Amino acid sequence: MSKDWNARTKMVHGGSRRSQYGEVSESIFMTQGFVYETAEAAEARFVELGDDEFIYARYGNPTVRMFEDRIAAIEGAEDAFATASGMAAVNGALMSILKAGDHVVSSRALFGSCLYILEEVLARFGVEITFVDGADLDQWRKAVRADTAAVFLETVSNPTLEVVDLKAISEIAHAVEATVIVDNVFATPVFSRAIEFGADVVVYSATKHIDGQGRCLGGVVLGTKEFIRGPFETYLKHTGGAMSPFNAWVMLKGLETLDLRVRAQAESAEKIANALEGHEKLERVLFPFLKSHPQNEIAKAQFEKCGTVLSIDLKGGQEAAFKFLNALEICIISNNLGDAKSIVTHPATTTHQRLPEDQKTLLGISPGLVRISVGIECSDDLLQDILGALDAV
């Protein structure tokens, strides 16, 4: 594949493998195992696997490999490994390189399940975790130690849209040879080049923008070939978090339109954020490309666009937020994001419900906070829907 192709072209053609039938749409290889012509051929494959050879679907599959190769080409990574879900990707990226006694520094503003893996799972197995304010570089400098094995962060946090200075944090981590692992789902592979800014490992929930149509679970981890085909593949193939061939095919189809969808969604999100800022019924509007956002300059330096999600904080707390949600006609209430349909979420009672109240307050997850994932509907219709719902509060 030509490295000179534009990313949008790679999203359509990258990683393609055609069978002897010359199909246009990628084939779905719905098989968990593979046949060897001889016992000697089976032995040879288990000794050394060729570039286009497979053993078992938990280790790899032709359809899954097409998705991995395509997303790696888009991201600018050496290799990728597809997983059963975004959380399988996060868990694998951390567990595959950490052991008891290791030290990890993480930003505090994380998705609830990511916090669970750090606070409960890793801590239970003897990994020491230090949480910091992701936007405060002094806290990162003080927290990262000579024995720090990894740092973990969301490039744009969920749901308060805090933006971290990835380049600066990567320099701090690399000074002690720590691995930089980033969840890049809000920024998307369209608008962010996390590896160029210093990330060693990039994680996506493919369930979000990559599928983009609410169909399948999936995740993917990207990095160097040494990491992906070394500790990560070893961990995943033995613990079983592999992506199914059918889901990989759906993700391939999603990648074909990813650039078109996400650009339209980001344009609408920015339009809506600008229109809502200063609204009399809102305490604040959170969107990194607004001048009022505390990390606006970092966001503009780091991303081509800042994504498809904004958050609004309604005056009147949970009661006002629920009235707003229930008055919407186009935007649907759910807990996903990155979908072609616009989705609204009340984090304090759903995605971040398990957090203690003091931690919600620390993270800025107030009772009135609503996350809006903007879809591909007409932006004027969406804005009128949102304004109409605010009138009902």
How many beta-strand segments?
12
Number of domains: 2
Structural class: alpha/beta
Computed over alpha carbons, the radius of gyration is 21 Å
User: Could you estimate the helical fraction of the residues in percent?
Assistant: 40-55%
Classified in CATH, the superfamily of the largest domain is Type I PLP-dependent aspartate aminotransferase-like (Major domain)
CATH class categorisation of the largest domain: Alpha Beta
Secondary-structure element order, N to C: HHHEHEHEHEHEHEEHHEHEHEEHEH
Widest β-sheet, arrangement of strands: 1-7-6-5-4-2-3
Q: What is the number of helical segments per DSSP (H or I, 4+ residues)?
A: 14
The shape is: globular
CATH architecture of the largest domain: 3-Layer(aba) Sandwich
What is the third-level CATH name, the topology of the largest domain?
Aspartate Aminotransferase, domain 2
Strand content: 5-15%
Main beta-sheet strand count, sense and barrel state: 7 strands, mixed
Distance between the termini: 54 Å
Key features of this structure:
single chain; 393 residues; Aspartate Aminotransferase, domain 2; Aspartate Aminotransferase, domain 1; 14 helices
Q: How is this structure best summarized?
A:
The chain is α/β, with parallel strands linked by helices and 393 residues long. The protein has helices spanning 7-13, 39-47, 62-75, 86-95, 112-124, 137-143, 166-174, 188-191, 225-239, 245-276, 296-302, 317-327, 357-363, 379-391; strands spanning 79-83, 103-107, 128-132, 148-154, 179-183, 201-205, 219-223, 282-286, 309-314, 332-333, 343-345, 369-373.
